[in-house]
Amino acid sequence: MAKQKYYVVWEGLKSGIFTSWEDCKKQIHGVQGAKYKSFISREEAEIALKKGWKSYYRSTKNSNKQSNTVKKDHANLNTDYMKESISVDAACSGNPGAMEYKGVYTKTGKELFHFGPILGTNNIGEFLAIVHGLAYLQKKNLQIPIYSDSQTAIKWVKMKKVNTSLALTKDTEQVWKLIRQGEQWLKKNTYTNQIIKWETERWGENKADFGRK
């Protein structure tokens, strides 16, 4: 039986604490810039609601500071990755929790696709992002590589099989449907695009990074 989770919505149609993912999703679905996160106890959720989303998301101010630090240290970073590529990443508030993923054009950071949030896990999101990227490149007839910072997801894609402990329930039915679709796509399609592990220590943050550290 799944453990009770408490979902804090700071910015959405309605803010507050919700005890089910479905109720949380109603407040954030289609809301640009929605801020939310799951917690394992009501006490943690109540504290988080009072502290505000900035304590759980990387703030613009901190991002600017980190950006300046990156610029100063840029000379120490290698830039030998292929800029003509797609970078993918996933973010998940809780495990499982509100999961979403996206893909960007590595050279410019332009968003190419974005899906979620739905209930899932980070590794599942990373897997779906890679498969989405492969399908996108096939449709565009592009032979450029895909970068992902998830070794687990890369392994699942190569195996054409997701190895997750996430139980199939009414709440996870949607993400399991996507998992099965992804697995079937991999079995029915061939591709020559490289799937490469993004080396954060060498290149800095993945270009599709959600910035939720």
Could you give the topology of this structure?
Blueprint (H helix, E strand, L loop, with lengths): L5 E6 L4 E3 L2 H8 L6 E5 L2 H10 L8 H14 L12 E9 L2 E9 L5 E10 L1 H19 L5 E3 L2 H9 L13 H16 L6 E3 L2 H4 L10
Parallel strand pairs: 4-7, 7-8
Antiparallel strand pairs: 1-2, 1-3, 4-5, 5-6
In short:
The chain is an alpha/beta fold. The chain is 38% helix and 23% strand. The chain is globular, with a radius of gyration of 18 Å.
Strand order of the largest sheet: 6-5-4-7-8
Share of helix among residues? 25-40%
- What structural category arises from helix and sheet content? alpha/beta
**Please, how many helices?**
7
Q: What is the string of SSEs from the N terminus onward?
A: EEHEHHEEEHEHHEH
Tell me the total number of β-strands.
8
Q: Kindly report how far apart the N and C termini lie.
A: 29 Å
Q: What is the 3D form? A: globular
Give unreliable regions as ranges: 59-76
Average pLDDT figure: 86
Radius of gyration, taken over Cα atoms and rounded to an integer in Å? 18 Å
How much of the sequence lies in strands comes to: 15-25%
Report the major sheet: 5 strands, mixed
